[in-house]
Amino acid sequence: MPTVDLYDSAYGNYEEDVYRQIRIATYGEDFGQTSWVTNDESSEIPQLLAVTPNSHTLEIGCGSGRYALQIAETTGCSIVGLDVNEAGIRNAKALVNARGLSGRVFFEHCDASEGLPFRHASFDAAFANDVICHIPRRLSLLLEVFRVLKPLGRLLFSDALVIGGAISHEEIATRSSIGYYLFTPPGHNEELIRKAGFRLLRVSDTTANTTRIAMRWRDARDSRRDELIAVEGEPNFDGLQQFLSCVCALNSERRLLRYVYLAEKDPVPVGD
């Protein structure tokens, strides 16, 4: 299966009306998403993280930046968004200026797998929506998040690549066609969360939501096939449709699972 471009197309063409239409048809609301997060989940995240107007919040993998801005606007908090995709960060910075939030919302181009460019105990909360699976050395990242969070600060992240059953090499290739992915066995994230020093508060199974989003996303794109091919090219359009169909199949059959993890920084250092 050849490599397929999802993120450059989505973020580089953020302002194109066809992509806006697809996001609305897929999610019901446009946050510039390329994730498996439902609207209910989006509204719940700030509550689970206990975000207040005084909170300093970190988003790892902010993409186009629209969801980070939504949190800042609805909660009054300050937020920093990081992403490795340059087109996403350019778009995010443009949105900050357009909305007049340059004093509270900041975006940085950053490869989180190489460490976080912040001082110890800089943030009250951190989250990553369907990003952890793209990052190698997961424990190192969780240790970095632990470092930059204040005592009792909360972390929320989702992982849509927890193995639930048998998967063929063709399916793995198709599911991985949009970039680097790390597939993990059940219980692996819970173990790493504890190793990093966090106290696990909650684990939620959101696999069914992933199936619904993938199906709506695929169908929304298919109904706008000609417009998308004009932007992406036919090989990339077909590749993304195969990717989304693969997500539908693997999640509906629960051979791949998506979980959301909520954890809190234990104020007692690891090993004490």
What does this structure look like?
With 272 residues, the chain is α/β, with parallel strands linked by helices. It is built from 11 helices and 7 strands. The chain has one domain (7-264): Rossmann fold (3-Layer(aba) Sandwich). It has helices at 7-12, 17-27, 39-48, 66-75, 86-99, 138-148, 169-175, 188-195, 207-222, 225-232, 234-252; strands spanning 56-60, 78-83, 105-109, 123-128, 149-163, 198-205, 256-265. Strands 3-2-1-4-5-7-6 form a 7-stranded mixed β-sheet, sandwiched between helices. Helix 6 links the parallel strand 4 (123-128) and strand 5. Helix 2 (17-27) packs antiparallel against helix 9 (207-222). The protein is globular. The model has no long low-confidence stretch (mean pLDDT 95).
